[in-house]
Amino acid sequence: MEALLQQVVAGLATGGIYASIALALVMIYQSTHQINFAQGEMGMFATYIAWALIHWGMPYWPAFFLTVVIAFLGGAFLQRTVLRPLENASHLANIVVFVGLMITFNSLAGLLFTYTIKTFPSPFPNRLIFDGLLSFHQLGAIVVTGTVLLLLFAFFKYTPVGLAIRAGAQNPLSARLVGIRVSHMLALGWGLAAAIGAIAGMMVAPIVFLEPNMMSGILLYGFAGALIGGIDNPWGAVAGGFIIGVLENLLGAYVIGTELKLTATLMIIIAVLLFKPAGLFGQRIVKRV
Amino acid sequence: MKVLSIKGLEAWYGRTKVLHGLDVHLDEGGFTAVLGANGAGKTTLLRAISGLVTVKGDIEFAGKSLVGVAPEDIVRRGIAHVPVGRGTFLALTVEENLRAGAYLLRNKADIAAAIERAYSYFPRLRERRMQQAGTLSGGEQQMLAISRGIVSRPRLLLLDEPSVGLAPLIVEEIFEIMKQIRTVDGVSILVVEQNATLALKVADHAFVMETGRLVLSGTAAEIANDDGIRRSYLGY
Ligand SMILES: Nc1ncnc2c1ncn2[C@@H]1O[C@H](COP(=O)(O)OP(=O)(O)OP(=O)(O)O)[C@@H](O)[C@H]1O
Ligand SMILES: [Mg+2]
Questions:
Q1: What is the Å distance from ligand 2's center to B43 Cα?
Q2: pLDDT tens digits for A164-187?
Q3: For position A239, which CATH number holds?
Q4: What whole-number percentage of chain A has pLDDT above 70?
Q5: How far apart are the C-alpha atoms of B110 and B90, rounded to whole Å?
Q6: Which residues line ligand 1 (CB under 6 A)?
Q7: Proximal ligand: closest to the CA of B39
Q8: Residues of the domain holding B83
């Protein structure tokens, strides 16, 4: 029983990371209706920036926030330069660019920071809590993810700019006709997603160690979380991320062993999408004519 | 006074020219209908005014040229455009649609007042304010579309085929309210309509387009009462 609880809690902790990646994916989706495959690598690259800042002597939290700002600006800059010319291009063209970005960031990180594994500090005390069930860092990561989620939710739901981003993604023409500068909103969406990805990267790095491929598996699980929860629903994506984290851990520990974890996760995604195509919590957009 | 003066307007989609030198003048506070068969270029005319297509010629609004101005900035000058098919933000709630429409108003009280005004014209929208817009009936969506247009407090409202797919009774109700919006709020209205009979009943001016050219213009009464015009251009 104790062991089971431990697996669940550990699952929740990794689930928190998947949840933040899922959230970043949803964010891009809400502002562009696209899924950014480079999301994980962008977060990884930002984590290297944080690592460099800390390495040069900056205290953790200033480095954390500076990295978030840099990631935001970098994301917005990418949209303005690389993606903007493709705003009217097909989805396929965009996907090619996403994959290209993914490879670019991966190689760039390897080139600049080498492929040797680095340790990345946690801002939280290094000890276990709740009778050893959870590390302080895992709890901290969950709290950070939760805070980001709440802030984002409030931003999208209650601010005019949040509304403008959603409107621009849903119907760009109508949005322009009410005066929304849709192109700027896309840049803002990219900036936000990059910032969230950076936070996720900095939260995951103390657990998995920092190296250029640290996000590849995580992106897949995050993607699974987003799909299961509903790609248009931030809450659903977060819930989906936690569900995947727990399932992954339980299946790995009790049912199929670690080798088949990924396969099992993919099967769950397929099953969910077969029976609930909009995801467990996704909004079916009803359209009457 | 003229709110909009268009002279020698040409418009292109890529290399295809679809408007061939149009002259149109709209009275401030007027209700004008654009009639014509499918493909005549009515939608393109509205798109030209809103900056959505490449144009040549003059479009002057409130004394300033609109040529080369981006759609986002044309709204800022005071022209609201409700596109064909209504352009609803389907996944947003009714109220969020209206807030999006009022995006350019900066002051909270102004936004609330503008939305309140729209609800007073269309009380049914108030009842459904928290409902997802995609679940509204066609008539309600059209009411929402018009409301989205007026909450920006435009000086000129462009409407593209507001009657499409709606029952005659709802269409009459909506046109009646458009008339009120014109008189009470002093908004000039330019409406593209297939339903010529109804449009000529509510509008005070009308013009008829054919293959990218203006073939007729006059008061709505003149056009409605001329049997020859009716038969040759309006087909009823
Ligand atoms: N995006 C486009 N690309 C190329 N040609 C277009 C495009 N949109 C319209 N056209 C052409 O321009 C001409 C005018 O079209 P427009 O939509 O303005 O007509 P309309 O009067 O609004 O017709 P309807 O009553 O069917 O809505 C048509 O010949 C049409 O084929
Ligand atoms: Mg048309």
A1: 4
A2: 999 998 899 999 999 999 989 989
A3: 1.10.3470
A4: 93
A5: 25
A6: B 13, 16, 18, 36, 38-44
A7: 1
A8: 30-39+72-204+213-234
